[in-house]
Design a protein that fits this description.
Layout lengths: L14 E3 L2 E3 L3 E3 L15 H12 L4 E8 L12 E2 L6 H13 L3 E7 L14 E2 L13 E2 L2 H21 L4 E5 L4 H6 L14 H4 L1 H14 L5 E6 L10 H14 L3 E5 L21 H10 L4 E3 L6 H9 L5 E4 L1 H5 L3 H6 L50 E5 L3 H12 L3 E6 L7 H5 L8 H14 L3 E4 L5 H7 L3 E4 L3 E3 L12 E3 H5 L9 E5 L3 H11 L4 E6 L10 H13 L3 E4 L1 E7 L2 E6 L4 E5 L2 E4 L3 E3 L4 H4 L5 E4 L9 H11 L3
Parallel strand pairs: 3-4, 3-13, 4-5, 4-6, 6-9, 7-8, 9-10, 10-11, 11-12, 12-13, 14-15, 14-17, 15-16, 17-28, 19-26, 20-21, 20-26, 21-22
Antiparallel strand pairs: 1-2, 18-27, 23-24, 24-25
Helix pairs in contact: 1-2, 2-3, 3-6, 7-8, 12-14, 12-20, 17-18
């Protein structure tokens, strides 16, 4: 029976994952965290990380990718593994913690196949020796005996998971990992019983499923995650995936988890900011019509409204939340209580994965500074009540003000403009970056909810601050554009990227040169191209977009190619004159190019610092965010949160 006392009754009704009853239809999707020990065992900080999501009310947690064979089957030593009995105890600790907070917990079992580098002295393996473009490695072809041995390793790992107390397991057949490689005609060119027709390509996963079913018993849940469309020419397509789904159902799979893509179509696996909410639910809907077992939908699902509608319309039976639960572990609890505006929104910036876990760093989140730090960042000792003055209403200042108020301090926030948000407002203007608006709205809503005293349109002079008699002053005054000392830079034909994005300069139908190929420069170039300008980006380095993650970089470069934006790298601007820009290339030769407008996007420098004027006149002074050093949202938010009001 659907619940009537909650705003989203379909989400929060009890349901069944095969034989397993769960408290709601929300699932934490498996995401590599790099929080494992150096030997691939469960770590204390990993337990804290999952405990926070269990406490937040999610019905089921699917623990991140866990190797059944090491080192060949994992991407790094920091990948979880359960390939030996030695690891069972640590996994049991994780299971008991999740159960203590009412969540069900399953373990995702995997072998990465060719999705790894030649590392740890081991060559990657695959069904066929087809090069992996993403890693630039050609794998070794598995022998038939090795395949049979890997089937046994999957079965043994599932039994270890059962011994550890997991409520079930999920087999990772998505994203071009080994099981998916056998399923795909693009990566499986074998001519034995494990390759050829779809039915033969399904032999490896079917043998694993049937072997686990025999060993673990008829009531142990087996989930299967797969890419219904690999979005690669010659790869798995949706029509074949419907047949594969029926084969898996017949083999004994209890639930299908419908994802998409491979490493070579990465934007469909870990979507950049430009992808719309829930864009691949149609894949789950199609598979659901082909089978009788439950189906999990996943992919940029951010709002309870979208999740509820998807379930009500019968497009999926369960909703998997991935990065949304990194941004806010309390997403389920807040949704259940109708506190939707209090949910910290994931903006799909990919700091968590693209900038962190793919570089073997612990998972972090741009909008939630506690992610990956659950065990210590929220356990700072309480401070005595203070009077805190925050100067600057950008992301660092807003987070500092919120954190200080929530810790019991009295807070006043000065912002010299007539609005809060700082550069979040400009960043959200960039094409495909509109989701940044969500986070700005969230911060402003929280400032209102906490009833923080905000003085808009007020410049905080040293005299005003001293009259407040604060215990702590937090300087979050942000940054200003870097204007180089170039001949001609003061020309009226020269402006900054902030002038364009803020609407101060309106440029249409011109030949525009953007100096600076970072995210700000390339994003501004896209804005200008959309206004019928002929745009060229000039960058000193050998590549553009070096200040962002590889997934976002590929997405923005694709947009730039479509917009016919020219890119010149290895060039430095040396002079600007009427109708011309003088460049110096890497070989030292001068180039003269014609243009109507020059836009500066060469970075930022801290805005004027009040510290010297306040030194010795207030008890504590802290400088955070871009006022300390221009960087990213993730740095501003962390510094504002970590400060805790001084």
């Amino acid at each position: 029976m659907a619940l009537k006392s909650v705003p989203f009754p379909k989400i929060f009704e009890p349901a069944f994952l095969g034989p397993l009853e769960v408290r709601n239809r929300l699932i934490m999707a498996p995401m590599g965290s790099r929080l494992a020990n150096e030997n691939g065992g469960v770590s204390p900080w990993q337990i804290d990380y999952y405990a926070e999501r269990a406490k937040g009310g999610v019905g089921t947690i699917i623990v991140e990718i866990t190797g059944v064979d090491s080192p060949c089957g994992v991407t790094s030593p920091k990948t979880l593994t359960i390939h030996e009995d030695f690891y069972i105890g640590g996994h049991n600790e994780l299971v008991e913690t999740a159960h203590a907070y009412g969540a069900r917990i399953l373990l995702q079992l995997a072998h990465v196949g060719r999705n790894r580098r030649f590392a740890m002295g081991v060559q990657p393996v695959a069904p066929s020796p087809i090069p992996n473009r993403f890693f630039g490695v050609t794998p070794r072809k598995l022998s038939r005996g090795e395949i049979e041995d890997l089937v046994k390793k999957f079965i043994a790992a599932a039994l270890r998971a059962q011994t550890a107390g997991y409520d079930g397991i999920e087999l990772h057949g998505a994203h071009g990992y080994l099981i998916g490689e056998f399923m795909s005609p693009l990566s499986n060119r074998r001519r034995d019983r494990y390759g050829g027709s779809l039915e033969k390509r399904m032999t490896f996963p079917v043998e694993i499923v049937q072997g686990i079913r025999r060993a673990a018993g008829p009531r142990y849940p087996i989930l299967f995650r797969f890419s219904a469309d690999e979005f690669e020419e010659g790869g798995t397509a949706l029509q074949d995936s419907k047949k594969a789904a029926r084969i898996l159902e017949e083999a004994g799979v209890d639930v299908l988890h419908v994802s998409a893509g491979t490493y070579d179509s990465m934007a469909t696996v870990i979507e950049p900011m430009s992808f719309p909410e829930g864009w691949k639910i149609y894949l789950a809907e199609t598979i659901k019509k082909a089978v009788k077992i439950p189906v999990i939908g996943v992919g940029v699902i951010r709002s309870p409204e979208f999740a509820e509608r998807t379930l009500r319309e019968g497009k999926a039976d369960f909703i998997a939340l991935g990065r949304a639960l990194l941004a806010d572990p309390q997403w389920p609890k807040k949704a259940r209580e109708g506190r939707v505006k209090e949910i910290i929104p994931c903006i799909s910036c990919n700091e968590c994965i693209g900038s962190r876990t793919f570089r073997n760093l612990h998972v972090r989140c741009a909008v939630n500074p506690a992610t990956g730090r659950e065990g210590w960042l929220q356990r700072l000792p309480p401070e005595k009540k203070k009077k805190v003055v925050v100067i600057g209403g950008g992301p660092a200042g807003l987070m500092a003000a919120l954190t200080a108020k929530r810790r019991g301090h009295r807070v006043t926030l000065y912002e010299k403009s007539d609005h809060l948000g700082g550069q979040l407002r400009l960043a959200a203007v960039l094409p495909g970056r509109e989701k940044i608006t969500w986070f700005g709205d969230y911060l402003r809503n929280q400032i209102r909810r906490e009833r923080i005293k905000v003085l808009l349109g007020k410049t905080a002079t040293p005299e005003k601050i001293i009259r407040e008699k604060p215990d702590t002053v937090i300087l979050a005054t942000g940054s200003v554009p870097l204007v180089p000392d170039l001949p001609g830079v003061e020309s009226p034909k020269v402006c900054t990227a902030r002038d364009i994005l803020g609407g101060k300069e309106k440029v249409h139908g011109k030949a525009v040169w953007v100096l600076g190929g970072g995210m700000m420069g390339c994003g501004t170039a896209l804005c200008l191209a959309a206004r019928d300008n002929q745009v060229t980006v000039v960058e000193m380095q050998e590549g553009v977009l070096q200040d962002t993650d590889f997934i976002t970089r590929a997405d923005v470069l694709s947009q730039m190619r479509e917009a016919r934006i020219q890119v010149l790298t290895g060039r430095k601007a040396e002079k600007i004159s009427t109708g011309e820009v003088f460049l110096r290339n890497a070989a030292g030769r001068e180039e003269r190019v014609k243009g109507d407008i020059v836009v500066l996007a060469l970075g930022s420098v801290p805005a004027g610092d009040l510290r010297m004027s306040l030194q010795g006149k207030v008890k504590e002074i802290h400088t955070i965010g871009d006022a300390r050093q221009p960087r990213k949202i993730i740095d501003a938010i962390y510094e504002g949160f970590r400060l805790n009001g001084g």
